[in-house]
């Protein structure tokens, strides 16, 4: 017996598209057990778009698009649901050069509202050319994925106080996969790139860890705040 996957159009930058998808899932299935946020964009190295434009669009799609999907879909998550955010090796906290920013992004009391502000501060810094390389680094994609990794930590903390038991959120690095995103120079197959996502999506019920963790392509759980 094989699987019978269904296709449904979803544009994570379009509020109505997200709502329509949410309504479809709820009315057809009554709730959601697994949510894997994989949609993202990356400007090519050879892109001629100004860095400010790259920063604004990348954060809009990769961070705020993912957050909007969560805002709409989280209310229909069932107990024991698993949420997986596709991050990146570039989404590790140490990709951010500024120690002050790293402290803010990893703070135990960081809220989603404050994380939103930090992501917008990066965009503002890029637009104003305020030493953005020294503070945030030279990659808009990296900043967006650091934001996604931080988001997973906050969401997991919030779910610990949710009446629905055992909802788990983690972020994962899929590895360097041979896709359009990597211009097909990634060395991993699609199947190999799915290992960490499947691991996080199929975690057994009532686990103690990983929760709010950063997971590598080989399923290794590493400290998001420290070298590894």
What does this structure look like?
- There is one protein chain.
- This protein is of the alpha/beta class and 228 residues long.
- The chain contains eight helices and five strands.
- Strand 1, helix 2 and strand 2 form a beta-alpha-beta unit.
- Helix 1 packs parallel to helix 2.
- The longest helix is centred in the N-terminal third of the chain and has 23 residues.
- The relative contact order is 0.15.
Features:
228 residues, alpha/beta, 8 helices
Strand-helix topology:
Elements: H1 15-29, E1 32-37, H2 51-73, E2 77-86, H3 99-106, H4 112-128, H5 132-135, H6 140-159, E3 168-172, H7 190-193, H8 195-201, E4 214-215, E5 221-222
Parallel strand pairs: 1-2, 2-3, 3-4
Antiparallel strand pairs: 4-5
Q: Quick one: how many beta strands?
A: 5
- Strand and helix order: HEHEHHHHEHHEE
| Beta content | 5-15%
| Strand order of the biggest β-sheet | 1-2-3-4-5
Contiguous helical run count? 8
Rounded to an integer in angstroms, the radius of gyration calculated over CA atoms is 17 Å
Low-pLDDT stretches are none
Give the oligomeric state of the chains in this entry, treating copies of one chain as homo and distinct chains as hetero.
single chain
The overall average pLDDT, rounded, is: 96
User: Termini distance?
Assistant: 41 Å
Structural class: alpha/beta
The gross shape turns out to be globular
């Amino acid at each position: 017996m094989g699987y019978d996957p269904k296709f449904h159009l979803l544009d994570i930058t379009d509020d109505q598209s997200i709502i329509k998808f949410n309504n479809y899932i709820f009315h057809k299935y009554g709730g959601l057990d697994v949510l894997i946020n994989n949609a993202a964009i990356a400007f090519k190295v050879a892109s001629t778009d100004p860095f400010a434009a790259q920063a604004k669009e990348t954060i809009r799609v990769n961070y705020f698009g993912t957050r909007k999907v969560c805002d709409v879909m989280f209310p229909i998550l069932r107990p024991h649901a698993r949420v997986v955010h596709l991050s990146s090796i570039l989404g590790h906290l140490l990709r951010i050069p500024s120690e002050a920013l790293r402290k803010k992004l990893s703070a135990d009391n960081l809220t989603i509202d404050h994380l939103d502000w930090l992501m917008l501060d990066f965009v503002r810094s890029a637009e104003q050319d305020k030493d953005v390389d020294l503070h945030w680094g030279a990659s808009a994609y990296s900043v967006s994925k650091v934001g996604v990794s931080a988001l997973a930590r906050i969401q997991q903390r919030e779910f610990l106080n949710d009446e629905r038991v055992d909802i788990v959120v983690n972020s994962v690095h899929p590895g360097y996969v041979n896709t359009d995103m990597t211009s097909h120079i990634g060395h991993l197959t699609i199947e190999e790139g799915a290992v960490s996502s499947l691991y996080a999506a199929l975690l057994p019920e009532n686990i103690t860890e990983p929760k709010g963790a950063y997971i590598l392509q080989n399923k290794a759980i590493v400290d998001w705040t420290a070298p590894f």
